[in-house]
Amino acid sequence: MQISSSSVIAHPRARVFQAYRDELPAVAPYMANVEAIHVLKREEVDGGRVRLHNEWVGKGEIPRVAQGIVRPEMVRWDDYAEWDAETQSCAWELKIRVFRESFRCSGRTRMVEEPRPGSAAGTRVVVAGTLEVSVRDVPGVPRILAGTIAPAIERFIVTMVTPNLEQINVSLSRYLDAVPKAS
Q1: Which domain holds residue 75?
Q2: Which residue, 121, 80, 78, is CA-closest to 100?
């Protein structure tokens, strides 16, 4: 499944890039289904690139049919990203903590200067990626119930990850409106 999002944030491109790369933990409170974002590793590499490993902690109700398999503490995912200041872009991959081999999600986020008539330029944030979920081999899913449980688990995973990819631009915009300058 293709994932895409394109939104304009009414802040300069350099500020949007910096906030995306360096301030995501502060953006978490602006996101409806994210409890927290923790930076687990940060590595400065040559050419103005930064590699990050962030842990996202989700919040939301686990569907009844999946509650025997998915516990609340499992609703976390790892975000591996390489940010490139020269291209104002980021290549990323998400890995979930449960059903790790059954889930693949990766893509690229680009920041493009967006002219705005009568005001300072804004930033178009373009997110494009792929999401693949396969629950056929998920441990603990009885084969006889796989047809019933599998779609619920798949929907749950998709509804936890996809909105974050699509809504982070809105959340980041709200954050930047509230906190216009880097701390």
Answers
A1: 2-178
A2: 78
Give 130's pLDDT tier (boundaries 50, 70, 90). Answer: confident
Tell me which residue of 126, 147, 125, 129 sits closest to 138, measured CA to CA: 147
pLDDT in tens, 30-64: 988 888 999 999 999 988 899 999 999 887 666 66
Q: How far apart are CA 10 and CA 116, in angstroms?
A: 9
Please state, in angstroms and rounded to a whole number, the distance separating the CA atoms of residues 73 and 114: 40
The tokens for 93 are 């991959």
Q: 84 lies in a domain?
A: yes
Helices (H), the chain: 13-22, 24-27, 146-178
Query: What is the pLDDT at residue 178?
Result: 93
The residue count of the chain comes to: 183
SS3 26: helix
Question: How many distinct structural domains can be found in the chain?
Answer: 1
- As a whole number of angstroms, the distance between CA 143 and CA 22 comes to 44
**Lowest-confidence pick of 67-76, 85-94, 161-170:** 67-76
| Residue 183 within a domain | no
Q: Which of 44, 35, 114 lies closest to 27, judged by CA?
A: 35
